Every structure is written in C-alpha cells, then in structure tokens.
Amino acid sequence: MSILEIKNVGKRFGGLQALSDVNLSVAENTVHAIIGPNGAGKSTLLNCLVGKLIPDTGSVTFQGQSLLGRKPHEINQMGVSRVFQTPEIFADLTVFENVVIPSLAARDGSFRMNALSAVRGQGDIRATAEAILEDVNMLDKRHMIASSLSRGDKRRLEMAMCLVQNPKLLLLDEPTAGMARADTNNTIDLLKEIKDKRDITMAIIEHDMHVVFSLAERITVLAQGTPLVEETPENIKGHPKVREAYLGE
Ligand code: ADP
Ligand code: MG
C-alpha cells in the first residue's frame, strides 16, 4: 500500500526545468530516501509535497487525496509533517511549551479552551506532550528553556514538535546537515526509535550515505530533475547509473 503517489510531476523555474516526469511512490510504514547530486531537484520536489510550490504538471496524492492546490497548513493537518534543516523552535520557551503549541495548532475547534487547560497542565494535552517527550527521551528536560539545549537536543525537540501533531508521513530534508558524527548517529538512533514506536512513514532527503544506508528501505536517486533508479540499499551500492550521476563517469 502506498501512502504517497507522485505522478508525472514537472516544475520549471524560468528557463530551468527543475523537475520533469517525476514518478515516485512511497509505501506505507517504510523509510524512503531520496538522494542525488546538488541541484538535482530534491528540495523542489519536497516543496511540491508540502504546498510551498505548485507543480506545473502531474499529480501528488496522499492517502488517496490530492495535495495539489492545498495550503501548507491544510497539508499539515492531513498528516504530513516536515522537519526543517535548521530546527525551528521557540527559543525562549520551555521544552514542554514548545511541544504544547503545535499540539494545540493541530487541533481544530476550541483553541482557547485547549490553551487554558494546557496552561493549567490539565487533561490529555499535558499527557500527550509528556508521552511524546518520553518518546524522544527528553521528559527530564521539559522545564529547560529551549535556547539552552544542545544542538542534538534541539533536533529532538523539533522532532517532538512534529510528532505531537501525529503525522502519518514525516518529510525530512537533510536532517543531519552540518552535524558532527556523534549528533548524526544520535539522529539516526532517534529516527529508528520513532519508527519502531509508531505507525509512521518517512521520506528523507539526505546527502550522508551513512544515514541513508542506516535508515532507508527504498532509495530513489534523482538526477537533473528525474528519478534515475529506485532500489533497495543493497542494490544501489555500485549501481552504474548512480556512479554516473555522482561521478560523471
Ligand atoms: P537539491 O535540493 O537537489 O540540491 P533544488 O531542488 O534546491 O536541488 O534545486 C534544483 C534546481 O532548481 C537548481 O538548479 C536550483 O538552482 C533551482 N531552483 C531551486 N529553487 C529555485 C527557485 N525558487 N527559483 C529558481 N530556481 C530554483
Ligand atoms: Mg536541497
């Protein structure tokens, strides 16, 4: 069963065809990596999934519903959540408050009542926030101010902020970019833990092959705006087309 279907997607920026004829299907509850050289169109593709860009051609379907023409927040409410390259957290709020805010935003209906019970630490909002913090091993840091967290913990917090919205599909654009090896390995472990604990699908754009091979079940190689190969990690290593795309051989 595929949760995300991308069919014949094309996107042009002026004279540049950034994406052409992209067909890609992401199976439910898998980790699917999208790799490819700089400028291949990876971020453009991701932006077409979250409503930041509208493709010129083709279709994008999530759980059988078209995403095209929907606003980013609508797509988010449908269960698609994006993790940014640099953590977007509320620096001067506590860890707990950071998790409560997206939880409220994800609910429709009586925001004010929810906000009130959250401030008073009542009901399921508190319980949900704490359960998520437990999932990412940050419960003991819930009273800390976010700006004082280590880089790795900021990443964990941002992940918690995504997870509290209960996404079905998590989109990650180079989640380990700029990280030292230890933080990268931490992020790999965190994503594995999340995957084990929840029904969640991940589509991950990543440069670091160590991350890709540690997590991905399927790998799509994008080159010059078009998928070149889709394979399992075992079959992608040494694939002639992949070598060609990366090394120009
Ligand atoms: P990747 O994420 O794989 O490195 P991008 O999707 O960022 O690649 O970019 C694909 C191509 O589209 C690049 O040549 C880039 O310069 C171009 N591009 C991306 N965004 C824009 C934009 N908003 N306007 C014009 N060109 C863009
Ligand atoms: Mg990019």
From TrEMBL:
GO terms for molecular function: ATP binding; ATP hydrolysis activity. Gene3D superfamilies: P-loop containing nucleotide triphosphate hydrolases. Keywords: ATP-binding, Nucleotide-binding, Transport. InterPro entries: AAA+_ATPase (IPR003593), ABC_AA/LPS_Transport (IPR051120), ABC_transporter-like_ATP-bd (IPR003439), P-loop_NTPase (IPR027417). SUPFAM superfamilies: P-loop containing nucleoside triphosphate hydrolases. SMART domains: AAA. It comes from the Bacteria. The keyword Nucleus does not apply. GO terms for cellular component: plasma membrane. Residues 4-249 form the ABC transporter domain. This is ABC transporter domain-containing protein. It comes from Litoreibacter arenae DSM 19593.
